[in-house]
Write a structure and sequence with these properties.
GO terms for molecular function: hydrolase activity, hydrolyzing O-glycosyl compounds. Belongs to the glycosyl hydrolase 2 family. Pfam families: Glyco_hydro_2, Glyco_hydro_2_C, Glyco_hydro_2_N. There is one protein chain. The chain has 678 residues and is mainly β. It folds into 4 domains: 151 residues, Sandwich (Jelly Rolls), CATH 2.60.120.260; 91 residues, Immunoglobulins (Immunoglobulin-like), CATH 2.60.40; 286 residues, TIM Barrel; 106 residues, Immunoglobulin-like (Sandwich), CATH 2.60.40.10. Strands 2, 3, 4, 6, 7, 9 and 10 form a 7-stranded antiparallel sheet that branches. A 6-stranded parallel sheet has the order 26-25-24-23-22-31, with helices on one face. The longest helix is centred in the middle third of the chain and has 18 residues. The chain is globular, with a radius of gyration of 27 Å. It starts with 18 loop residues before the first strand and ends with a strand.
């Protein structure tokens, strides 16, 4: 069982002593930007007449104030330094604050940051002894198009406003304080070495010392010691008997870094968990630790009904990963958001693969691009120690590129430059430059298509698998704009092919039907290395979730997501008519349904394809079948006679199952028949 209590807010840089500052803070609204002129930063003046619950955005019900379209807010809280920290420096960390924040302690400015998702870290000087008054001013522009903001709604609106949600302004991730000695570890970065026999550790330090050393130990392995030079140290950490991390065996090592100042000062001790694994693209396939990998992913935007971008607690972060796993998904694409790092730690422990990407901008200007690009090193530093993260995403659907990457060389060059930056900072992971289309420099050729026309879907999937899908039928904007798969002439290099957004339907019944048939069509193609379904949960007006906004299961008309996303999937070779009427036939008619078996397990599937009519023993049968790993079989013919209607007038349902040799069910789907008059 994974424990959620007492986990450090930043597991990749954890100290044993820390104190949460989440909870009630004094709050003042400043819609007219009067606070600075009137000296609210001192903390002893201003209309501190409200209380806000941190870390919930001020628009959210959980904040207690629900302040909408407020551009500026002020926070105030008194903090008493613990007696046992009296000889140490005190630092405050805000995990996320949108968008621009300034911090004062007893009226003295100590920090200023803009970025929203990267967070804030500052030292709290003891100008007034052991008690200090902390004031934080936050500016979140109403017009967010020129700052990284992801799915937060903007006025004026983004071009993609139809899929945006209530903003999350102000402090929206946990706040804590921790003591550090004079010389301290600023960051600890860990990457597996090329042959997976150990790690390379990179340490950045804060403070000044001319004779500092750092020792690092991996679990019970002997510690390795090296000198700190100009605030930096790099150490190779060998492991005698390496144990690799994988979804089936999510084994984590604990790395302890101990910084010795070289004099009479205190040591600083920081720990991080991490894992040994290799993700790579070999030709058109993905491999994890040398074994072929098929991705069954889900897009997760990380919103909650009462908290907006903020989870109601650590247990909710874990629960969402468990919900994804229970629905059969093996990867979560964390969409346009820097999530609470604790969720990545839980993913490490669960064995859930992760795709992480920064929040998008809405317009292409030098300032907006610089703000977006600055998030890439922050993202890699923040999440780089987590073995669950296998893909860095960058842009999404040309948001912030004005849908002109193919038409404008400057925009294409921006894509290439930022992709090369991510590769340079972290060569151990795959990078997607612009998810959806208009690729320039990418490790994966991914594509997004939403359509409820299954004939069109069949054609798009077939052309993608054949490598002839050059133009994507996107239907963007008022002119129903289509977009190219590549913004530049591709280099001819083979790359993995992924669909990374699909899923349609206005009702739960329609969504379940399209989920089943569209996913089955993707699984028919061996040349496609996986998919990412949109999405995990409903959000506000967007009812595209596998689960409701409050995380309840949906009635999907008999479709069970865990069946759709199994290792072994049965694929009836037909284009269905409509929900509840996959096939039209008459009672007593003999029909032939050709069924292929897609198997993405590591060992061959050996067993039987069985069929029966729901609620009766009518005309059941089976066929022996063997399928190699990562192969879709040739279709097998299921010949059967259509029975009369089921009770209550429902049409007959043909159930198809893949049974292992011990009769364990490995796969399941069904075909609904609508009876026609003779």
């Amino acid at each position: 069982m994974i424990q959620t209590e007492q986990l450090h807010p930043r597991p990749s840089g954890a100290r044993s002593r820390w104190q949460s500052l989440d909870g009630d803070w004094d709050f003042a609204r400043d819609p007219e930007d009067r606070g600075l002129r009137e000296g609210w930063n001192r903390g002893d003046t201003g209309p501190w007449d409200e209380r806000i619950t941190v870390p919930y955005a001020w628009e959210s019900p959980a904040s207690g104030i629900e302040a909408h379209w407020l551009p500026i807010g002020w926070y105030r809280r008194r903090f008493e330094v613990l007696p046992e920290w009296s000889d140490l420096r005190t630092f405050m960390i805000i995990g996320g604050v949108h968008h621009e924040a300034t911090v004062w302690v007893d009226g003295v400015e100590v920090a200023h940051v803009a970025g929203g998702h990267a967070g804030l870290e500052c030292e709290l000087p003891r100008t007034g002894g052991e008690s200090m008054l902390i004031v934080v001013r936050v500016v979140n522009p109403i017009d967010k198009r020129f700052v990284p903001h992801g799915k937060q709604r903007s006025l004026p609106a983004d071009d993609f406003d139809g899929c945006q949600f209530t903003p999350s302004s102000g402090i929206w991730q946990t706040v804590w304080v921790e003591p550090r000695p004079e010389l301290y570890v600023r960051s600890l970065s860990l990457q597996p070495n090329e042959d997976l026999t150990g790690f390379r550790a990179s340490i950045e330090t804060g403070g000044v010392s001319e004779a500092a050393t750092v020792s690092l130990a991996v679990g019970d392995e002997p510690a390795v010691v090296t000198a700190v030079v100009d605030g930096h140290a790099v150490i190779d950490l060998p492991i005698a008997e390496p144990r690799l991390w994988s979804p089936d065996d999510p084994f984590l090592y604990e790395v302890t870094a101990t910084l010795h100042p070289g004099g009479s000062g205190s040591d600083d001790v920081v720990t991080s968990t991490t894992g040994l694994r290799r993700i790579e693209a070999q030709g058109s396939a993905l491999y994890l630790n040398g074994e072929q990998l098929y991705l069954r992913g889900v897009l997760d935007q990380g919103y909650w009904p009462d908290g907006g971008l903020t989870a109601p607690g650590p247990e909710a972060l874990l629960r969402d990963l468990e919900l994804a796993r229970d629905a059969g998904f093996t990867l979560v694409r964390k969409h346009l958001k820097f999530e609470d790092p604790r969720q990545l730690h839980y993913a490490d422990r669960l064995g859930m693969l992760m795709w992480v990407e920064p929040p998008s901008i809405g317009r292409f200007t030098p300032e907006a691009v610089n703000a977006f690009e600055s998030l890439v090193p922050e993202m890699i530093l923040k999440y780089g120690n987590h073995p669950s993260v296998i893909i860095w995403g960058l842009y999404n659907e040309e948001w912030g590129l004005d849908w002109q990457a193919a038409e404008d060389p400057e925009r294409a060059a921006t894509l290439q430059r930022i992709s090369e930056l991510a590769h340079r900072l972290d060569p151990t992971r795959l990078v997607v430059d612009d998810s959806g289309w208009s690729h320039v420099e990418t490790d994966i050729v991914d594509w997004h298509v939403y359509t409820d026309d299954l004939v069109k879907w069949d054609d798009v999937v077939a052309r993608s698998a054949a490598g002839t899908l050059d133009i994507l039928p996107i239907g963007l904007g008022p002119d129903a704009l289509d977009r190219p798969l590549w913004a530049r002439e591709p280099d001819g290099k083979a790359r993995p092919n992924l669909n990374t957004e699909y899923g349609v339907g206005h009702t739960s019944l329609e969504r379940g039907w399209h989920l089943r048939w569209q996913t089955q069509r993707l699984r028919r193609e061996d040349a496609i290395s996986g998919y990412i379904y949109c999405e995990l949960t409903d959000i506000e007006h967007e009812t595209a979730g596998t689960y409701t906004f409050d995380r309840r299961r949906k009635d999907l008309g008999g479709t069970i997501p865990a069946d759709v996303h199994r290792d072994t999937v049965l694929i009836p070779d037909l284009i269905p008519v409509r929900p509840g009427a996959d096939l039209l036939a008459t009672a007593g008619q003999e029909i032939v349904v050709n069924v292929a078996v897609s198997h993405r397990g590591s060992e061959p599937f050996v067993g039987r394809l069985g069929w029966s009519w729901e609620g009766s023993d009518h005309d059941a049968g089976s066929i022996d079948v063997t399928v190699k790993p990562h192969v879709c079989s040739e279709p097998l013919s299921v010949r059967t006679t259509v029975p009369p209607a089921r009770p209550a007038g429902a049409g007959p349902r043909l159930r198809l199952v893949a049974l292992q040799t011990d009769d364990t069910m490995a796969g399941h789907t069904f075909v609904d028949v609508e009876l026609q008059a003779h």
